[in-house]
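Lab notebook, design round three. We kept the backbone fixed and only want residue identities now. Task for the bench partner: fill in a sequence for the structure below.
Input structure tokens:
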């Protein structure tokens, strides 16, 4: 018996339900990744993806298999490979974005045409979207986080699967199906090292996760995005340890937005709250200054420049910069969300646009009119200004918290702009 496992954003061997099921059911397994030119992803994420694939390939080789990499439409290619190797079935992780669901539908049709069995598996979230529903299970989806969090905690998600010990490829696969690349920093091995190295910080997570300069959050988001780590395994590994709850709660936010996207596929373009009022200004100069980190508000500029430099931004900075764009400059959340989506290593439709809508007041925030004051936020979460000095070199010589209000200095720092007019 031969099975094909189509990897998408579950780029790991540990706790990967599709891979484990194939390893159990078939004597030979063909792990496959199809590079899809139609997939929207910025350069940062593309680079990271290649690293993840290199690492996945090494892990599969250690277990006696390899990774087949092809280019084209994943549905067509997966079925082509399945036919070529005489596979009876294809396994794939179910996912929630419009793009992923369309891909799954095409795969379903292509498999049906060729009488190949298609099996979908969980693995992208801790609890599958749609598995927990309000109103004793009969409702559609949770619109508010706290009741979702309560129901989510009561689920049975703690059984984690290891990696298959041994995998066998069919004989004589074409050499052109395999790629070689240099050793990566992304991928499952780096993700597992990062998780282990970070775990001692778990106890301090609640107190430290908002301290922008300390940089004490896990930085696991790109790995979770590409599925280098199973979110279920991460949750199970910390569960019950001192300080775990606030961290697990963040993983639950991730699941929450996935079930929102599952129920509301237009999250990327349409206001989630139908009654939300939207009056955005066409402020292309302000938008450009924001993108480049030249708004003249240091905490906003520091966040935007961290994004440009690292393809990642601290969560508190994401909140401040997104709120400033939508609630101070009154620029459309879609423009901000698209910029983030383009650059973020962890950029995903559910978390990015779900959070943007939350901040803009069009989404799941129960207080949609809240507005973060960037200066107050700066003093609270970057009290001595180290985060700003790290990312805004024009302000590197301004000492202490004065860095947050350069307009009050006796001499304006050279090269740093005055705040945009609101
Ligand atoms: P930690 O604090 O260590 O949290 C652990 C994990 O929990 C994260 O890796 C992430 O998977 C999840 N998580 C934490 N906070 C949130 C949250 N608010 N919503 C959903 N999941 C969360 N996260 C993304 O993964 N992709 C995005 O595209 C994204 N866009 C965002 C846009 C805006 C405007 C805002 C305000 C937040 C966004 N987030 C996004 C959520 C959050 O900022 C990041 O997940 C977090 O900063 C990642 O850093 P970390 O791994 O160190 O987080």
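Proposed sequence:
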């Amino acid at each position: 018996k031969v099975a094909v496992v189509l990897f998408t954003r579950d780029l790991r061997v540990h706790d990967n339900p599709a891979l484990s099921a194939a390893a159990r059911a078939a004597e030979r397994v063909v792990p496959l990744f199809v590079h899809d030119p139609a997939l929207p992803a910025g350069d940062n994420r593309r680079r990271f993806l290649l690293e993840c694939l290199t690492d996945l390939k090494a892990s599969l080789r250690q277990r006696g298999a390899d990774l087949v990499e092809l280019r084209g439409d994943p549905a067509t290619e997966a079925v082509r490979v399945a036919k070529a190797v005489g596979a009876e079935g294809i396994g794939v992780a179910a996912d929630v974005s419009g793009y992923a669901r369309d891909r799954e539908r095409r795969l379903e049709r292509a498999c049906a045409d060729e009488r190949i069995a298609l099996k979908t598996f969980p693995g992208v979230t801790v609890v599958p979207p749609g598995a927990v529903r309000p109103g004793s299970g009969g409702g559609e989806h949770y619109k508010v986080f706290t009741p979702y969090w309560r129901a989510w905690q009561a689920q049975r998600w703690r059984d984690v699967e290891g990696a298959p010990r041994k995998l066998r490829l069919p004989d004589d696969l074409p050499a052109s199906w395999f790629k070689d690349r240099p050793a990566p920093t992304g991928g499952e091995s780096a993700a597992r090292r990062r998780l282990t190295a970070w775990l001692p910080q778990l106890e301090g997570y609640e107190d430290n996760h908002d301290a922008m300069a300390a940089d004490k959050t896990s930085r696991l988001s790109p790995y979770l995005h590409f599925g280098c780590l199973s979110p279920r395994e991460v949750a199970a590994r910390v569960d019950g340890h001192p300080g775990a709850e606030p961290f697990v709660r963040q993983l639950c936010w991730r699941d929450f937005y996935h079930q929102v996207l599952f129920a509301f596929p237009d999250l990327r373009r349409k206001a989630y709250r139908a009654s939300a009022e939207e009056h955005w200004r066409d402020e292309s100069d302000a938008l450009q200054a924001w993108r480049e980190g030249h708004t003249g508000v240091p905490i906003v500029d520091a966040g935007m420049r961290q994004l440009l430099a690292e393809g990642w931004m601290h969560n508190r900075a994401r909140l401040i910069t997104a709120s400033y764009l939508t609630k101070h400059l009154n620029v459309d959340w879609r423009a901000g969300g698209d910029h983030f989506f383009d650059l973020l290593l962890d950029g995903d439709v559910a978390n990015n646009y779900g959070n943007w809508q939350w901040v803009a007041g069009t989404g799941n925030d129960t207080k949609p009119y809240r507005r973060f004051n960037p200066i107050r936020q700066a003093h609270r979460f970057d009290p001595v200004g180290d985060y700003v000095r790290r990312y805004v070199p024009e302000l590197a010589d301004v000492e202490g918290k004065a860095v947050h209000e350069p307009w009050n200095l006796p001499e304006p720092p050279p090269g740093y702009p005055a705040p945009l007019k609101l």
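Keep this in mind before ordering anything: The mean pLDDT is 95.
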